[in-house]
Amino acid sequence: MIVTNIALEKRAASPDGKSFNLQNCGPRHTAFIEDGVVAKCFEGVNGGWEYYFSVEAPDISGLGCQIDGLVERYCAACERLGLSPETAIFRRVFLSDVMNQVGRVRESPLLAETADNPLAVSIVQQPPSSGAKIALLAYHVESSDRITKRRLSRNHIVVEKKGMRHLWSTRLCSSAGESFQPAGEQTEEIFENLSNTLSGEAGTLNENCVRTWVYVKGIDAFYQDMVDSRRTLFQRYGMNKDTHFIASTGIEGACAHRYDLVAMDAYSVLGLAPKQVSYLNDFDNLCPTMDYNVTFERGTRVAYDDRTHSFISGTASIDNRGQVVHQGNVMAQLERTLANIDGLLQSGSSRLADMMHMTVYLRDPTDYGIVNKYLKKRFPNMPIVIVQGAVCRPEWLIEIECIAISTNNAPHLPEF
Question: Regarding the domain delimited by 1-144, which CATH topology (the fold level of the hierarchy) does it fall under?
Fold first, then answer.
């Protein structure tokens, strides 16, 4: 298949004349690979390009040097691809020791923004399994149509494009201060923050929130408190097994505040058309989450005129009875996890090749070598970030989340 014209044009337009590895990897998908950087692009039939980046820090000592090296790699890749700073929408910074490192990150270009070009930045303690102190996942959108961004508050920005408003919410936490507050209470406070922000934009948690990432410090001890609080809150907002929930990852992670047990990022879409959102399930391989009293969707699909976004929740080695499969064997769990993701994607007419990135969570960091080798071989063109993050059941050794973008032909739906 011929590489898309826009990809060739960008390659030819590389400012310093340097070549880089460009590969076609599916219908309207192109991958760009440089040292420490993998970027994957989706080109819409009606125009508009979406990019996901994974960026590794160079193998050098010291947080400052690693930040500088990571930023240099990231900026060089953006320059090669002709991406201006205005195309940046979202970044997630993974740190090995957030309380001691967040200050340096805040001072870095990773958080730099201007009044007319705000940026959603997530900062979470999930140590990169490579042994580095920092890693980066980034999302850019490029379009011939005007994109406007406005900051609502420290935690929320709205991106407006073709009449749709995309709310990115990051670093939501209770800021518990110097006192202990139960995980359930923190969870409610965080969701109320998101709900109130959506209300201010004429939206609701029920109708407009598409995806959440919930980070629980000490997940083996505090996960259930978060789950119970979320279930009660969702019931209050009209979400139950007969309606729908929200795609989510609930994983070990921490923000920069000492006593905060729960933190969250979220993505919401305002101005959705009827039937634009559907939910992904594969009951041959996975049971409904409510079978074990947890309230999240396995996957959420948002359809536009020329593309679909399939948000796959954190997925592990589970069967259709809700049981852990392949206990003690990380590679067998990896295979089953990917099979489960494949089934979820296929239920929404997508496939593994449509994945734009993967975030991989390992309970045991010593599994990194074998997992990384396997994934690099099977998905050589995929932006992948592998971090240490325990899953909600100790028997699960690995969990994976992703987003897939695939082509669509639905002219009655809004444009992305």
Answer: 60s Ribosomal Protein L30; Chain: A; (3.30.1330)
pLDDT in tens, 72-130: 999 999 999 999 999 999 999 999 999 999 999 999 999 999 999 999 999 999 999 99
Q: What is the pLDDT of residue 176?
A: 64
Contact call for residues 170 and 265 (beta carbons, < 8 A): yes
Residue with tokens 């494009």: 161
User: How is residue 253 written in tokens?
Assistant: 């992670």
Please report which residue ranges of 201-255 form alpha helices under DSSP H.
Answer: 205-208, 219-236
The answer to whether 198 and 204 are in contact (CB under 8 A) is yes
Each as own residue / partner, the long-range contacts of residues 176-179 (CB below 8 Å, 24 or more positions apart, any chain) are: 176/257, 176/259, 176/260, 176/261, 177/257, 177/259, 178/258, 178/259, 179/259
Whether residue 2 contacts residue 24, with contact meaning beta carbons closer than 8 Å, is answered with yes
Q: What's the CATH number for 275-416?
A: 3.30.1330.40
> What residue has token string 């379009």?
143
181 class by beta-carbon count within 10 Å (0-12 exposed, 13-18 middle, 19+ buried):
middle
Q: What is the pLDDT of residues 25-42, one digit of tens each?
A: 877 999 999 999 999 999
What pTM did the predictor assign?
0.95
3-state class of 124 per DSSP?
A: strand
Residues of the chain with CATH 3.30.1330.40: 1-144, 147-272, 275-416
Cα–Cα distance for residue pair 111/57, rounded to 1 Å: 17
